[in-house]
Write a structure and sequence with these properties.
69% of the residues lie in helices and 0% in strands. It is mainly α. The protein starts with a helix and ends with a helix. 45% of the residues are buried.
Length: 541
């Protein structure tokens, strides 16, 4: 009985001990089970696929090689260069109720005071074909009034047959007032989806002819209408240029009869330079010297805005186009000064132009640096407009693709790269993308990696490994690869820092990524810098 009692006590003690150990044992087992698939994935992809990985290595285009190139043709740069510019539409509608032009010798008031309606359209079209110049003038004026609203009834006007008589009114030489009203009406039609219809009806040639009219108002309105045509698409832009519009537009800019004429002709000129494929380089050579003089001498904000947009379109191409701009002394310094302007509408095209220049060669980039751009970038990184912060990061990323001295200049600029890293950490998504490019380009320079790491780049880079954009993930992978390589060579604990930032787990997860380049890059990093991590875990278990 005593032996039985002793056995029962031992069994109870063992059972209590087992109950005490079970929770922690189960917890360890659950932890192992949860972590096991991740490690197993690494073992399978890193082990069974090792030979396959080596075979495919030779076909793998290292993004590090492409990555450091300046991104004039990248997805990001293309997004930054959308054909429709911010706050400055490529078409403009004249909705002002201008009545200062009087009919000379017409013997009456300058048109009816009553606002016409759509019901008047059939009558107006008939009157546009009348024998009397004055009757045609009044009809054109009423039709212009009908079209001079925020949403003009262009469909009704075109379907009623307004285009042909309006274009005939441009060709007649008896009345500049009739030419003016017809050009105005056509301007507002061309500001809608009926631009090509106006072109097919034959408006371009007579409008180009009116750019040399004795009437400044007719010249201005004709230039305005041609600006709407050129702003529609590159094909119509080239058609306007081939019709001979460039030289008379430039003449009107050189000797403007009014500030209004100067504004509208410079805007038209910007549309004549706009669009992809880029305008012929011969056009750029004609345009840039005149625009440069405007930039250096003009004080009108609207004119400066359109001149800067024209510069941005011209420099959005091969390096020889950038050289055309750089041949104009003091222009880059003037653009840099405009980065501090109170109006974001002027800052945006100035920043875009400078960003285009630094997509060029190191020598072209150096001109921008010597103009003193770097101190102007920190305020732009803190600007309330997201588009300006994004473009500033884009510009910095292209400077970071330069030579060692240019990269060091970026790093030496107080708080600049730290601010970029802040955007990399928690900026708005589009800004984070550009910040990732900037930091990744900096990390491609082995001599500067330790400075970038010291500023706190590892954690936000690792955070972006889960991004949905495969191009962005590849950019980040290259930055991490470069950081780990420098850490290995300099005996710095960067691999530990990546693991502490959950980078190792994310790298392992990327082995299952559907993108082949991402998979290969992740496997390569794991094989080189984190060998045996999975096996160590199993050995512990």
């Amino acid at each position: 009985q005593q032996q039985q009692q002793q056995q029962q006590q031992q069994q109870q003690q063992h059972h209590q001990h087992h109950q005490h150990l079970c929770p922690s044992t189960r917890a360890r087992a659950m932890t192992t089970t949860a972590r096991q698939p991740l490690r197993m994935l690494r073992r399978v992809r890193g082990g069974e696929a090792a030979e396959r990985f080596q075979d495919r290595k030779q076909d793998y285009k290292k993004v590090m090689d492409d990555h450091t190139r300046r991104r004039e043709d990248s997805k990001w740069a293309e997004d930054l260069r959308k054909s429709k510019r911010e706050e400055n539409l490529n078409k403009r509608r004249n909705i002002l109720n201008r009545t200062h032009i009087e009919i000379k010798g017409a013997g009456g008031a300058a048109g009816s005071e009553q606002q016409p309606t759509l019901d008047d359209l059939p009558r107006l079209i008939v009157s546009l074909k009348a024998a009397s110049v004055f009757e045609r003038y009044k009809a054109a004026q009423d039709l212009r009034k009908l079209l001079s609203v925020a949403n003009p009834p262009a469909t009704a006007a075109v379907e009623a047959g307004a285009l042909a008589p309006l274009i005939e009114a441009l060709k007649q030489t008896q009345s500049v007032e009739l030419q003016f009203e017809a050009a105005w009406a056509l301007t507002n039609i061309a500001s809608t989806d009926f631009t090509k219809a106006a072109v097919q009806a034959g408006c371009v040639s007579p409008l180009v002819g009116l750019l040399t009219s004795q009437s400044a108002d007719v010249r201005e309105q004709s230039a305005w209408c041609l600006g709407n045509v050129a702003g529609d698409c590159p094909e119509l832009r080239d058609l306007v240029l081939e019709a001979g519009a460039l030289d008379p537009v430039l003449d009107n800019i050189r000797q403007p009869a009014s500030l209004s004429l100067l504004r509208n002709t410079v805007w038209t000129l910007s549309n004549l330079c706009r669009g992809k494929p880029v305008v012929r380089i011969e056009v750029a050579r004609k345009v840039v010297p005149l625009l440069s003089s405007i930039l250096l001498q003009c004080t009108d904000e609207d004119t400066l805005i359109d001149a800067c947009w024209a510069f941005s379109y011209i420099t959005d191409g091969e390096n020889d186009r950038i050289d055309i701009l750089l041949e104009q002394k003091e222009v880059i310094k003037s653009l840099v000064r405009h980065l501090g302007h109170r109006s974001p509408s002027l800052v945006a095209p100035a920043l875009r132009t400078l960003g285009n220049v630094v997509t060029g060669t190191d020598e072209q980039t150096q001109v921008v640096l010597e103009a003193g751009i770097l101190p102007n970038l920190l305020p732009l990184l803190q600007h309330p407009k997201k588009s300006l912060r994004k473009e500033t990061c884009w510009l910095i990323s292209n400077i970071a693709a330069g030579n060692k001295q240019q990269i060091q200049a970026l790093l030496d600029e107080p708080r600049l790269i730290s601010e970029v890293i802040q955007h990399l950490s928690w900026g708005q998504w589009e800004v984070r993308e550009e910040a990732a490019w900037a930091i990744s380009n900096l990390c491609m320079s082995k001599d500067h990696v330790q400075q970038v790491v010291a500023m706190g780049a590892i954690q936000p880079l690792c955070d972006l490994l889960t991004a949905s954009d495969p191009n962005l993930v590849l950019v980040v992978l290259n930055a991490i690869d470069s950081i780990l390589l420098v850490g290995e060579e300099a005996k710095q604990p960067y691999a530990d820092a990546v693991e502490d930032a959950d980078g190792l787990d994310k790298l392992e997860e990327l082995q299952g990524h559907k993108n082949e380049d991402i998979y290969l890059k992740a496997v390569g990093i794991l094989e080189r810098y984190f060998p045996g991590e999975g096996e160590d875990d199993f050995a512990e278990d």
